[in-house]
Design goal:
The chain has 7 helices and 7 strands.
Length: about 220
């Protein structure tokens, strides 16, 4: 499996049913449970094909009301990424801490998710929608050229050889041939029209009075 294929599988969006939302400071944020992140890593690398190491997890020295964790994720091929996460200590009305162990676990889970984001897992949730659309468009497969595309490119190559007088003559030719129809857009040309225009442009470029047409018959 190539690295591109692995990245595509890692970064594939999760079903909406697996996503969760939380309201923070009046803003609704979408996130993924750490269990879904672990499951994605297990499915792609295998349960023994990756691991994570908690490098540190402690209450912040500046603000002890926060627990900060630093996690490193490694895969069997030697790749590794770090993530830092945290969580605020929750207290009862009495001021007692609700469950400090749970805050440590949450900080490690947050850091683990941040590290896996570097591999592409759930990264789309942290990206702007417009940026994702632009990125998708930039990396979309290039469509195979159609017969119209090929004939149009050939016509434009020949037309580029014409001087201004011959360009005007070509426009007059089209006006006569089409009965005054406006010059079509690239996608609106027919193959026959492009063939005829290419032959006429070539005739003008060569200064010929007679040239074989596209059907093999000679005309004046």
């Amino acid at each position: 499996m190539t690295n591109d294929n692995i990245y595509e599988r890692l970064s594939e969006p999760f079903p909406q049913e697996m996503e969760r939302t939380v309201n923070k400071s009046g803003t609704q944020l979408t996130y993924l449970p750490v269990s879904e992140i672990i499951n994605r890593m297990n499915r792609i690398f295998g349960p023994t094909g990756w691991s994570h190491e908690v490098l540190s997890c402690h209450r912040d020295a500046t603000d002890p009301e926060w627990v900060i964790a630093h996690v490193r994720v490694r895969t069997s091929d030697g790749a590794s990424h770090d993530g830092v996460g945290g969580g605020q200590v929750k207290r009862k009305k009495s001021g007692d801490i609700v469950d400090l162990g749970d805050e440590f676990k949450g900080a490690v889970s947050d850091a683990l998710k941040k590290a896996c984001q570097h591999f592409g897992v759930g990264l789309y949730l942290a990206r702007d929608i417009e940026a994702i659309e632009i990125d998708d468009a930039m990396h979309a497969p290039t469509p195979e050229p159609t017969p119209i595309d090929e004939k149009y490119e050939r016509f434009m190559e020949v037309r580029a050889l014409l001087d201004d007088d011959n360009v005007r003559a070509l426009k007059e030719y089209w006006n006569t041939y089409s009965g005054g129809r406006p010059v079509p857009k690239r996608s609106e040309f027919t193959e026959k029209e492009l063939e005829l225009l290419t032959v006429e442009a070539l005739r003008l470029h060569l200064g010929a009075t007679t040239i074989s047409d596209v059907s093999g018959e000679e005309g004046e």
